[in-house]
Structures are given as structure tokens and as C-alpha cells.
Amino acid sequence: MTSEIEGELRKRMTETEDRHEQIVPSSEVDSDDDRVPEQTLEHRTKHTPHGTDQQPSFLHTILSPLPPRWRNWVIRGIFTWLMIGLFCFIIFVGPLALMFTTLLVQVWCFKEIINIGYSVYRMHGLPWFRSLSWWFLITSNYFFYGESLVADYFSVIFSKSDIMRWLIAYHRFTSFFMYIVGFVWFVLSLKKKYYMRQFSLFAWTHVALLIVVTQSYLIIINIFHGMIWFIVPVSMIVINDVMAYMFGFFFGKTPLIQLSPKKTWEGFIGGGISTVFMGMMLSYLMCQYPFFVCPVEFSESEDSFNYTCDPSPIFRPQEYSLPETLANFSALLGWKKTVTMYPFVLHSVALSVFSSVIGPFGGFFASGFKRAFKIKDFGDVIPGHGGMMDRFDCQYLMATFVNVYIMTFISETSPQKLLQKVYMLKPEQQLQLYNMLQDSLIARGILQP
User: Fold this and answer.
1) What residue spans carry the Basic and acidic residues bias annotation (predicted)?
2) Along the 449 residues of the chain, how does pLDDT read in single tens digits?
3) Rounded CA gap, 289 and 308, in Å?
4) Considering the entire predicted model, what is its pTM?
5) What CA–CA distance (Å, rounded) separates 355 from 333?
6) Crossing angle, helix 95-121 and helix 129-144, to 10 degrees?
7) DSSP structural state of residue 147
8) Which of 52, 83, 183, 433 has the greatest CB tally within 10 Å of its CB?
């Protein structure tokens, strides 16, 4: 009996030693701290600022007699109208002010997303990672804006400088080299026991760049086609958000989606219908002003940006025949069988349908993101509302659709844009192109010899 017990003990000791030999020393693997229970996420992000709870001291003093719920409602309303007023002022200043504002919003949104990543992965003690994130932001902005915007829209200005001509000519190589510098920098910054966290934040940074930088670039491209392509879509998102809230508040009973329990089908449908009609009215009004519909182009003769033009056909009134049934009914009432409207008003219907049906999913995506990481807001820059990302989550999705819509159904090659390319050629190349074009026009009988 004793020999059997001793044999069993020796067997167990042997198995234990075998298991220890198969285990890699803890110093050679990543820390298990990455697999922290989900309930600790709230502790990690508890220091993330929440704008909906932010109350400026002077307003808090003035509104102190009100209950907290009404106090927050008043603060939210005040800053809503302040944002609308600021937006109108920026529009009044002009397209360049809108572009500059878009860049500022982009940087702030990126900052908010990256700060949440630092809080979740507790990376504050690791070297260089914050600097790396901003380096990749600079690199991506240089790539997008340096080639398309500078070469296509500002080439007349920058072609006068030899240094700028060189930068434009070697732009893609410079952009690639900048990214390689960041990539090597990241690899050299890797620390033992933190590999998983660092690679997670590396991916986090690139997703943030995809969401923020790409979309802001498309917004600016849309502005160059005319401010109406920026103002109308942005206004549609705001209208849909407000009207969905109103219909949901008064008539909402049926929940729409679990990510946002307060959203209802009644608000979703009511907001969508309101957006279509109000978007058409706004589009009709703006089509009457060249300041909103003219593309943003640089005039070499005036050495400044030109905001006047001969409007595109989609911004000129066109006469459309009514369907036969409506035409007969209109004739019975003594009305015309045709209707005159701006073609852009019809295009605005497609924009409003997208902003009503798909646009809210940008907000749902942001809601899911915040719930996943146990946070209420992305930041606290706007009291009563949250961070910049809380206000622009739907706008970025809308910007992509508008750009795709313009390139698919609206955009056409303009002589002004081709001329911008010509200005980037050397003088002898410009002269060669001129002679070739002249010979071709003479051969086709368009010009006299």
C-alpha cells in the first residue's frame, strides 16, 4: 500500500515538472494586464471628460434655482444657438474659413479618439506613443492635402515657387518616406510585456485616421465644388436630428435600436419626411445665390479666389413636364402642365434620403463605441453636448456620400481644372502644348490659319 502511494506521488511530481518545463518564463511574454475584466473599463475611463455634464461656472450660478434636468436643457439650448450662430458667421466669411474650420475640427476629433485609447490601454507611461500618433496625423494630412488640393486647386499660387514645385513633383515619395519614418519609429519604441497594447493602439491610431482625416478631406473637396454641397448636407443632418427628436418626444412609442434606447420608429420616420421637404426648400433658396453654387477657383488675372461664375445647369431653373395624371389634374384646375425648378432640388432629395436613413447610423456607431468603453461623451469642449466627435459623428458619413454622389452624377472636367495642370508645366512645355493645340484647332477648321 505504501509503495503504491509513493509511486503515485512520484508520478504526480514528474507530471508537474513536465508542465513547468513547457511554460515560457513570464518575462518572455506579454503581460496579462491586457485581458482585464470588462468592469474595469469604467474605472480606466472615469477621468474622460463629459461635456453633457459640463456647466460653466457663471451659467451654473445664474441657473442654480433650476432643477438639474432643466439646467442642463437650458445650457444645451444656449450652446446650440451659439454653434448655429458661429456656423453662419463662418459661412459669411467664405469658403476658406470653412476649410480652415474643418481642419480644426478634424484635429480635435482625432485628439478625442486618441485620448480614449490612452485611457483604455493605460499607455501614458510608454515612450513616444503620443508623439507617434500626431506624426501619423501630420503624415496623412500631408499626403491628402499636399497632392490633391495644392496640385489641383492652388497650383497657380505654388507654381511660382521653385521649392513648392519640387515638393509637388515629389509629393508621393515624400509622403511615403514620412510614413516609413513613423513605422520604423513605432517598431523601435516596442517594449517587452507591452506588445499587445502597443499594437492595439497602433491599429487604433490608423482607424482614427481613416475615420477623421479621410472624411475631412472629402468635406473640403466638396466645398471646392461649391459651398452648397457642404451647407445643404450639413443642414440636413441637423434638421433630421432635431425633427427626429421632436417627433420621438411627442409621438415616440416604438424603440428603434438597442444602441440608442431613446430613438423610436416614430421619430425616425417623422424626421426623415421632414428632412426631405425642408431640404428641398433650403436647396431652392440657396440655388438663387452664386456665392453658394459657384466652384471655388483661383483667378490668375485677379490674383485671388473667385466666388462668381456662370452657374452650372443644375443651378439654373429648368422646366419639367408633369406625369400624365398630374398634368390632367393640373389642367382641370387651370394650371400649367409643367413645373419649373432647379435640378439641384431634385438631387437634394437623394441627399436628404441618405441623411435620414443612413446618416443616423453614424450616431449609432458612435453610441456603440462609447458603450463599449463605458464612456458618456468623447470630450467636454462643448458644454451640454460633449466633444467635437459627439457633434460630427453623422457628418463624416454624410461627407463621403456627397463626394461619391458628386463624382458619380455631377462632376465633369472643367477647362479651369485643366488649366491648373498646365500651370504646373515648365514654360517650354506650356509653349509646346500651346503650339500643338493651335495646330489641332487649325486642322479641324475651328481656327483660321
Assistant:
1) 7-22, 34-43
2) 545 555 554 555 555 444 443 433 433 344 444 444 444 555 555 555 555 555 666 565 666 667 766 666 677 777 778 888 888 899 888 888 888 898 898 888 888 888 887 777 665 566 677 889 999 999 999 988 876 666 566 655 566 667 777 777 788 899 999 999 999 999 998 888 888 888 888 988 998 898 889 888 899 889 888 999 999 999 999 889 888 878 887 888 888 887 777 788 899 999 999 999 999 999 999 999 988 998 887 666 666 667 778 888 899 999 888 888 887 877 787 788 788 899 999 999 999 999 999 888 887 887 777 777 777 667 666 666 666 776 777 777 898 999 999 999 987 666 666 776 777 677 888 888 888 888 888 888 888 87
3) 10
4) 0.76
5) 36
6) 150
7) I
8) 52
Number of domain units in the chain: 2
Grid coordinates in use for 292?
453658394
Asked if residues 366 and 393 have their Cβ atoms less than 8 Å apart, the reply is yes
Q: Is residue 1 part of a domain?
A: no
Based on the fold, state whether residues 432 and 344 are members of the same structural domain. no
CA distance 218 to 307: 20
Please choose, from the candidates 392, 383, 381, the residue with its C-alpha nearest in 3D space to the C-alpha of residue 115: 381
Q: Is residue 407 part of a domain?
A: yes
Same domain, residue pair 395 and 428: no
Supply the DSSP string of 388-433, one letter for each residue.
HHHHHHHHHHHHHHHHHHIIIII----HHHHHHHHHTS-HHHHHHH
